Amino acid sequence: MSAAEKLTPMMQQYFEVKRGLPANTLLLFRLGDFYEMFFEDAEIGARLLGITLTKRQETPMAGIPHHAADNYVTKLLAAGKKVAICDQAEPAQSGKLVKRQLTRILSPGTTLSANQLDAAKNHYLCALSLDKAGLHAAWLDLSTGEFRIATDAHPENLLPVLTALDPAELVLIEGDLGRWQAAPHEQHAVHALHQFCAPRLCSELPGYHFEVTGGAKTVMDALGVLNLQGFGLANGHPALGAAGAVVYYATENLCAKPQNLRSLQEYRSTRTLLLDPATLRNLEIFSSTRGTRDASLLGAIDRSTTAAGSRLLERWLAAPTLDLPEIVRRQTVVGELIAQPSDLAGLRELLNKVRDIPRILGRLQNRLRNPRELGGVKDTLAQIPAIMACLDLLDAHLVGTHGGETSKVRARLTDLPKLRELLAGGLADELPNDLADGNYIRAGYDAELDRLRSLTTDNKSWLAELERAEQERTGIKSLKVRYTSVFGYYIEVTKANLANVPADYIRKQTTVSGERYVTEALKLKEKEIFSAEEKSLARELELFNELVAAVLDESMTLSRTADALAELDVLAGWAVLAREWDYCRPQLDEGELLSITDGRHPVVEQMMKQERLGLAGSYTFVPNDTALSADDAQILLITGPNMAGKSTYIRQVALIALLAQIGCWVPAKACRLGLVDRIFSRVGASDDLARGNSTFMVEMNETANILNNTTDRSLIILDEIGRGTSTYDGLSIAWAVVEHLHRSAERGPRTLFATHYQELTQLAKHLPRLKNYSVAVKEWNDDIVFVRRVVEGAADRSYGIQVARLAGLPLSVIDRAKTILTQLESEDVSVTLPSPQARPKKKITVAPADDSQLNLL
Question: In what order do the strands lie in the sheet with 587-589?
Fold first, then answer.
């Protein structure tokens, strides 16, 4: 007999499902109240989940309760596994093999369950392909239905937004990841693409899934349209191959076509401010250096009360707009809300009761349904009339501005009174999370359900009466009528009372403490009870599905209303932020100026206050001014000691510009900004040893990216360029970088350049658009006091030894350093150094761009 013939029918069923699954997928196979894993899956699952690995007939097994499956699946997904769910497709019947089928494959990019998603974060599945025409991308948030495509001849323009979106899973053409890794070193864009993909979960598909023609057909079928012209797209758009691959992959994992795709939008890098991956990291836009949302810019400015609002803010930060009217519109709404604090407070209280409609609809449309999802729709609909009334009142209070921008947001809200009343009348006040628990339809909503429930209630009364009567008939006062899901209803008698058991009792089971019995009357009543409960649950499910259908009929209207609520939530949160921290409305235009009066760092300021809570005194963040212009003060060269605040200052300028361009008010007394097309930053020290890159190589890679991609409308912040190598090499590189950014033209990118190379300050004599600034300090008894003020003029020295003293270096080291510094500065190279031979200080001259001679001592 072959191995296949030895398999039981159930295990044959298991292997039929298992054979069709992608690699790295664990199969959860439903057996009664458990999901079981077998063989290697069981060994892997037991190790990752910390559950017991058992064996039956030498077959490794590991099981999890079906009602707690979501929590276990979350752990498997976090471990980088895919999970296939095989469910029972019919009730179990004695002596018959239960029909089972694959219901969905869960992967990090296609999961939909609420407890497997971060409510405040978008969750993207992204497909990528690269050819001679450029990089093509499609990204889909299956939980909300957001679907976008993009193509760019220059991958470096598309990678910044993809990095900001931080997809949970990538879909690639088979073999592409390896080819990108092995590409020649001069193919910088390909290596950047590999660097983006390598840390993420990558799933591969054959190349034909990325063909444009087939992809367009797949996308049109998913959207239910005959062409894509209604979305402003040609059917031959080169990114439709990636879009088709995303839809195909999602369909395979859902085991059904996604039902919540309604539109497809094109992303274009020319319409957004770009922030490269290094800048996102250096400025801590989405996460801090510790990898948390706290202490990031996103964490500092998110005052949203809804999950959808937090996700919208994340999207705005990922792709800041260059659309000036849109920026002004957002600013205006914030201003109108700030002007009416009492209305703002009332609005926020109402928004706090709004539930996550986009994701609820996504689950309902894709067959993940439970009573609490409908309860979320009911709760939200109950708030819409009050929110609309609140906005009407706010608009009426805006004297002289009736019909302002806030009223336009209000016009996008739609009240659905019939659906609201239907859900309020149909759903119970307390809703279970599982349909199998029942009692989610309100009493009085349906006469037939009420009748079936009364039968169940009458039967339970009958059981209580039976227990009382049998206690009286037998004289056994401890006799109980009980129920379990395995044995049904039974009469329980303890061992001490077995002698009093009547002859008509039929023994059902022996337990440690006694015996369990049934009677003919109890068996008949059990059938009645089960029949009534089964019919009651079936009727309740039928009514539930009718309510779901009513909600889905209004899904487009609900989605539009949810989008408006999310936007209102973000802008109302910004109004609270602006009032709390005294933010101002920035003035934006198409000009070249970046002017900030009393600017502050939005994250550091908040952290300083938190650190001072509970302590005596008040916190103080020292504000500073900034004046940059592409054709005047283009480069500010900032010198001063470590710890004085140079890095904080240049970062805060970049963050204020970013906040202004997403429509947020900014931490300053006044601000004017000519639109920025890109923000670049090179700060801090980090390495990438896994790819053979030292700290200095990372620094040079990031600097090269800036110099090769900047435009006259860019904003650049550079901190300590050249510090990763020898003094003269580093100084030379920093010098050349400054000259390159200044160029010989009449304008250049607005740049903040912080450095310890005092020699660079001489460049102000020869580069007309470079201005020297420094962070002021005060000296007292050989100590320094940080003033935190940025003032015009170069610093006279770096005060490194004084900072070293503050750090706690031994006094002997400090004193010796002073002696060495004095002798080096006097060019007395006879000083005894710890090295075998003192290296004399060199006197060099460097020719600047205009060929005049500058002395570097």
Answer: 587-589, 670-674, 593-599, 624-629
The partner residues of 845 in beta bridges, in order of sequence, read 855
pLDDT in the model for residue 690: 42
**pLDDT category of residue 488 using cuts at 50, 70 and 90:** confident
User: Using CA atoms, how far apart are residues 648 and 651, in angstroms rounded to an integer?
Assistant: 5
CA pair distance 435, 537, nearest whole angstrom: 9
Q: Which of 398-402, 506-510, 826-830, 838-842 has the lowest mean pLDDT?
A: 838-842
| Calpha distance 360→255 (Å, rounded) | 19
Distance CA 198, CA 202 (A): 8
| 588 bridge partner residues | 673
* Nearest CA-CA partner of 531 in 502, 488, 497: 488
Confidence of residue 397 (pLDDT cuts 50, 70, 90): confident
Two tokens, residue 808: 């706690």
- Residue 161 burial class via C-beta count within 10 angstroms: exposed 0-12, middle 13-18, buried 19 and up: buried
Other Cβ atoms within 10 Å of 478 Cβ, number: 11
For 261-283, write each residue's pLDDT tens digit: 999 999 998 899 999 888 999 99
Tens of pLDDT, residue by residue over 193-218, are: 998 999 999 999 999 999 999 999 99
State the Cα–Cα distance between residues 364 and 441, nearest whole angstrom: 17
Q: Give Cβ neighbours of residue 704 (< 8 Å, ≥ 6 apart).
A: none
Which of these, 748, 361, 743, lies nearest to 561 by C-alpha position?
Answer: 361
Relative to beta strand 587-589, strand 670-674 is parallel
Residues whose CB falls within 8 Å of the CB of residue 44, separated by 6 or more in sequence, listed in order: 26, 37, 81
Q: What is the mean pLDDT of residues 471-475?
A: 93
**pLDDT at position 847 over 70:** no
Helix (H) or strand (E) holding 203: strand 202-205
The single-letter DSSP state of residue 93 is: -
Q: What one-character-per-residue DSSP string does 805-829 give? A: HHHT--HHHHHHHHHHHHHHHTT-T
How many Å apart are CA 29 and CA 64, to the nearest integer? 10
Q: What is the rounded distance in angstroms from the CA atom of residue 763 to the CA atom of residue 490?
A: 95
What is residue 442's DSSP assignment?
Answer: P
3-class DSSP string for 170-186: EEEECCHHHHHHCCCCC
Domains and CATH numbers, the chain: 3-106 (3.40.1170.10), 116-271 (3.30.420.110), 302-416+554-581 (1.10.1420.10), 447-548 (1.10.1420.10), 587-809 (3.40.50.300)
With residue 854 as reference, give the H or E element that holds it.
strand 854-856
Say if residue 360 is exposed, middle or buried (CB neighbours under 10 Å; 0-12, 13-18, 19+). buried
How many Cα atoms occupy the beta-carbon half-sphere of 194 within 13 Å? Answer: 17
How would you list the strands of the sheet with 146-152, edge to edge? 202-205, 169-173, 125-131, 134-141, 146-152, 265-266
3-class DSSP state for residue 322?
coil
CB 298 within 8 A of CB 313: yes
Task: Give yes or no for residue 3 having a pLDDT over 50.
Answer: no
Please report the pLDDT score of residue 458 as a whole number.
Answer: 79
pLDDT digits (tens, 9 = 90+) for 60-115: 999 999 888 889 999 999 888 999 999 988 776 666 788 899 999 999 999 998 88
Q: Residues, the chain, total? A: 857
As a whole number of angstroms, the distance between CA 749 and CA 713 comes to 6
The CA distances from residue 160 to 269, 319, 321, in Å, are 9, 9, 14
The rounded distance, in Å, linking the Cα atoms of 95 and 159 is: 58
Considering only CA atoms, which of 284, 279, 345, 311 is closest in space to residue 607? Answer: 284
d(CA 825, CA 812): 20
pLDDT of 854 reads 43
